[in-house]
TrEMBL record:
Enzyme class of the recorded protein, top EC level: translocase
Domain of life: Bacteria
Protein name (record): ABC-type xenobiotic transporter
Similarity comment: family membership: Belongs to the ABC transporter superfamily. Drug exporter-1 (DrugE1) (TC 3.A.1.105) family.
PANTHER family linked: ABC TRANSPORTER ATP-BINDING PROTEIN, DOXORUBICIN RESISTANCE ATP-BINDING PROTEIN DRRA
Keyword Ribonucleoprotein: no
Residue ranges that the Swiss-Prot or TrEMBL entry lists as coiled coil: none
UniProt keyword ATP-binding present: yes
């Protein structure tokens, strides 16, 4: 089994849900290059599962296998209760896939893209038009429905892409890096769409390189590196795997700084910046202890900041800084 961390009560509830997607020992190689080296996955129904990893880690290959686009060399997988090796057609009927690159045809209108998808799902004409109209309205694309999709913005194309995926009413959706290249506003809009899908009972299997995206959306996260699952758990559980939490105290008065350094002997001093750094888990109890020590000594710090490990720290610790994603972190308010 892949490395994981102890579940909290909330994550335990998720894990008790039936598995929408499960895999044991999945392996895939291309020539002499091993892309997936025996990975195990379990995605509870009605949840968001995020698969993180640097470029080339095997995220897209995992999605292609689980969505029946390619076959695994070894291992077993079930999607929506169907064995991919023996009943791939039944699995396909239960899933929708939105890949890294848009499936939207820019030469036809948004409405025509939707109706084409309805035809592919063999919906009756009237039913296809009804479903297309409902989804275009749901994704705020009604006003642009008659325009060529080539005129859509990146965010509009991505919304149309997911709307097309929902024409067949899938229970499980694979989203392979759905927000790559989108501006922050469009990305946040996409997050809202994903949350809405899950509220409606859909299971979302998400791959992403935006770590704040996984932190915001995912019930559980797995980090894939060199074809193997390096760790799995909730965002909070993964953050607890990484040491390095600390409190930083800054002083403007050199005398106060020296007195604080003499009082807090376990702190790492920076004489030039007049700062002290103490190991801390960031808990209220830990902070109170530090402040009580300063109060007892009659010392006031001019600034106190708390750093707790985030998913960036987890990612770097598990995959190494050389393979870390290059997208800038976005502060989520």
């Amino acid at each position: 089994m892949p490395p994981s961390v102890m579940s909290t009560s909330n994550s335990a509830d998720v894990l008790r849900s039936p598995a929408a997607v499960s895999a044991i020992g999945l392996r895939k190689s291309y020539g002499d290059r091993t892309v997936l080296d025996g990975i195990d996955l379990r995605v509870p129904a009605g949840s968001v599962f995020a698969l993180l990893g640097p470029n080339g880690a095997g995220k897209t290959t995992a999605v292609k296998i689980l969505s029946t686009l390619v076959s695994a060399d070894d291992g077993q997988a079930q999607v929506a209760g169907h064995n991919l090796a023996t009943d791939p057609q039944a699995a396909r009927a239960a899933i929708g896939v939105t890949g890294q690159f848009s499936a939207v045809d820019g030469l036809i209108t948004g409405e025509e893209n939707m109706l084409l998808m309805a035809d592919l799902h063999r919906l009756p004409k009237a039913e296809g038009r009804r479903v297309a109209a409902e989804l275009l309205e749901r994704f705020d694309l009604t006003d642009a429905a008659k325009k060529p999709a080539s005129a859509y913005s990146g965010g509009m194309k991505r919304r149309l892409d997911i709307a097309m995926t929902l024409v067949g009413d899938p229970r499980i959706i694979f989203l392979d890096e759905p927000t790559t290249g989108l501006d922050p506003r469009s990305r946040h809009t996409m997050w809202g769409i994903i949350r809405e899908l899950v509220t409606g009972g859909v299971t979302v299997f998400l791959t992403t390189q935006y770590l704040e995206e996984a932190d915001q959306l995912a019930d559980r996260i797995a980090v894939l590196n060199n074809g193997r699952i390096a760790a799995e758990g909730t965002a909070d559980e993964l953050k607890r795997l990484v040491p390095g939490g600390h409190v930083r105290l800054r002083f403007t008065d050199p005398t106060s700084y020296r007195n604080a350094a003499a009082t807090l002997t376990d702190a790492a001093p920076d004489d030039e910046a007049l700062t002290l750094q103490l190991p801390s888990d960031g808990s209220q109890r830990d902070l109170r202890t530090i402040l009580d020590r300063l109060d007892t000594a009659g010392i006031d710090a001019d600034e106190l900041t708390v750093h707790t490990p985030d998913l960036d720290d987890v990612f770097f610790a598990l995959t190494g800084p050389a393979t870390a994603p290059t997208q800038p972190k976005e502060e989520v308010r």
